[in-house]
Amino acid sequence: MNTSPASSPFSTLYAALPRIAVLATGGTIAGSAQDATSTAGYQAGVVGVGQLLAAVPALSTVANIHAEQIASVDSKDMSLALWTTLVQRVNALLATEDIDGVVITHGTDTLEETAYLLHLTVRSTKPVVLTAAMRPSSALSADGPLNLLNAVSVAGHRAAHGQGVLVVFNNRIHSARDVVKTSTFAVDTFQSPEVGALGWVQDGRVEFQRSVVRPHTVATEFASGPASADAWPAVEIVTSYAGATRTIVDALVQAGVRGIVVAGTGNGSIHAALQQGLADAASQGVAVVRASRVGSGHVMHNGAASDDALGFVTANSLNPYKARVLLMLALAAGGTGPAELQRVFDLY
């Protein structure tokens, strides 16, 4: 596709309008309340994709839009079945010559998990951008319309190609691997604590200030993920805290889980009683990944002195929720044993 002249490689736009698929899944961005001053007492996912688009007339100057309503859920209720549907639909759209990029509207609660899943399973270098809102569409100063406009602008920008899955929120562009939700109410809730945003978007201008380094999308070994909801390996999360016991771990092992991610304290440290339960689980073939409940930083692998002896894998800088996503994909792809799983966590 031809491009117009630009002052810098980061401000190059398509000469012709890009063709962007907008896939709606619900969330606060599609929420509504009777009271315009209410940002908490609303129903999520009740506004359809057509109404979302109609609220942003400027979209017609940014892209040619193909819209689909994939789901209408509060993202706290995101399911493995919906993940499977979303991955398959995104890959199908990007495989055609008719679509230049995809934007997904999503709830904020599990957006970082869905974004990271797509970051590892999308089989295209075309842009995929997730966006959302902290205020429902009916609220005063609703943030959804501008976030949607900015997301489409980024998805249609040449600099977004090959950057993996992105999250555009509050004028910032984040990598799906790095971004986390940090506030229960603030419109700047999404941050990348360890490394910062990739760039920014404002008034139609898109600028990337760094690039993604770790493998993603077409460079991963995970194909398109499990083919059905039933094919996802069972992986659960437990937390370490003062007075923690092994009760939950023993129950999960008895239930037949294939993996457990532990949200440890500090550098992924684990209460002694809980640690013994996890070590016993690992000895029975359950994959155990040690992450941290702290909001930033990375969990160091302790080697032969601890992790190797116990059969544990460490999550690097992934939080427990993203570590669960990666562990499920690794197990579904046939990953077995702590050494192989540690390679995966060190790489992605």
Automatic annotation (TrEMBL):
Binding, substrate: S75, T108, D109
Domain (L-asparaginase N-terminal) ranges: 19-212
Residues of the Asparaginase/glutaminase C-terminal domain: 235-345
A GO MF label: asparaginase activity
Active site: T28, T108
One GO BP: asparagine metabolic process
Xref: Pfam families: Asparaginase, Asparaginase_C
EC nos: 3.5.1.1
Record-stated family: Belongs to the asparaginase 1 family.
Protein name: L-asparaginase
Source species: Paraburkholderia humisilvae
